[in-house]
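Example 3.2
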Amino acid sequence: MALSLTELQAVTDYYHERSSTDIYFKSNILLWKLMRGDTGSKLIPGGKKIQCVLEYAMSNAGAFGNTTRFPLSKKEVFNSAFFPWAAYYAGVTIDFEDQRQNSGDLAVVNLVDGTLNNAKKSIRSQMGTEIYMLRSATGDASGFSGTADLFNISTSTAYGEIAEDDMAVWKANLNSSAEQISFKVMQGIRRSASIDDNMEGKPNLYVTTEVLKDGFERTLHTQARYSDVELVNAGFDNILFGGAPVISDNKQTAGYCDAFNLNFLDIWTHQDYNFTKPKWASPIDQPTLAVAFIMWSGQMICKNRKAHTRHTNLSEPS
């Protein structure tokens, strides 16, 4: 006998509550770091767009003496970037035949486990792919304003609704020089994204391909090869450079190395769409089906574009 929607929901609630949310992020280091690994994703209420306040200039300041005339003019030091909402879903459907073939409590639990696990992996995979893409390339353009937007050097395209012509310090930070990856090249990448002399002003995550990560590792002395143990325990093999992990992602573009300062990069999540609990329902015209969806909505937010850099056209050492 098929389960009622109420009984199916009870099984789902039990499974959903006891399962770790790490399943959403662990295959993608950028998602893990921004949404789960350190502070978690910031939850925000709704709105037409997501507003991020930027502190992009310094106030009037300087040395003074007895005759110094202090400047009285107002200086603009704040601006706002506006990011569109992204939204992702994964759906599962169980029909009458599924329930009839999986009779018994254990079989039904296994069925729900399997379908929801697949849904979680599916939404994770979609988000992990599109976080590297242009928003305009993500199907119906409702996906991430991803790293391709962050590093888009087109001056005619506004990022966060701010054009480079309106705020020069907001320009994309990109290097396309053909080079073999090495310790020296990585030093250049770090310098190009440095916004302060202290560690908080330098990149703290490098994401590249497995080929380039392995190539960089080969350039290091054996005794200088260290890893971030916490990330290793979370399933992310890495090699440290300047105290920051260099990690490969199979969704990263060949020849690319991205340097991120996660103090100025975040993912904000809508408080009502934070991987919603599946709610089973049956279409009116198909009562033998049980359908549920997992939904997420939010966006990747950049607070300082210069704090991140992308180096393309890299190759492994010969």
